[in-house]
Amino acid sequence: MASPTPPTDAELTRGAQAGDTSALGLLLARHQAPMRAVALSLLGCGPDAEDAVQDAALTALRRIGDVRDPAAVGAWLRAIVRNAARMRLRDARETPGLDGLGELRPGEHGPSYPERLIDRHAMRDWIWDAVEELPPQQRLVLMLRHFSGITSYQEIAAVCEVPLGTVRSRLSQARAKMAQVLMTTAEQAHADASALAEESRHEAVATLAAAERGALPPEISELWPAEAEMVGRFGTPEGRIHPGPVMRRVLDKGVRQQVRHVVASSDITIWEMDVTNPADSADPCPPTLAWLMFRRDRRVRSLRVVFPGATA
Length: 312
Prior knowledge:
Largest sheet: 5 strands, mixed
Strand content: 5-15%
Oligomer: single chain
């Protein structure tokens, strides 16, 4: 009996665009060698070339629906690698590692445009299951770099309080692990990642509204146990500070926040906020900030407030 004819690039691409994760996995595996060859030709042997290939694979996950000529998907993948490699050759300020992520920044196309794009490509749950497989430190840098507005290596290093080289190392490890997991889980069933993000968004809105009223309802206050603490610029070396009084002080200054974008995994949550200051404020808060929370069983263990673009 003759062996079945392998699917063409066009067939795999159309399948991936229809939401078939196994088709996209096969497509990336088929073109991995020519993608790596492009990266090596521009960057030479080394971790930068591997990073460019991994970035391109993640970009393909998010943008496979953009392919207009399914038969030419190989050229499209190589072009993404070429763009990723060229970004690494630039010495200017770091740009987001996913090709085209600047077009997907939260707030520019609505509060959750990146998630809607992934929904459209039916790849969201596959991606987020793979994200959950990463160790927490790697998951954090990848979530910041690829799914939040805190994208530069310098900003991520400041948020995580680690050297720049550590950020690069963790991102490289995270991308490699992601590529491995994605290739081996394409045909598995995946949890609904949107439910977690939507739940977190509702929690963020309810937390801000309740804080303005002066009292958190039980369903919100139980997420902020007595052992929760502020860390970073609003923490103190003298002892533990609960986030509640800090929220109160900010509100008393007339500062108001509105949820702009939410990124959520099982134990790391990022709430990005737009900030409004009172007109007569002598010391205004920056126009955007982010709440970076580490959780256990949904309850917040620590909260770090960070200001994108500020390195202090």
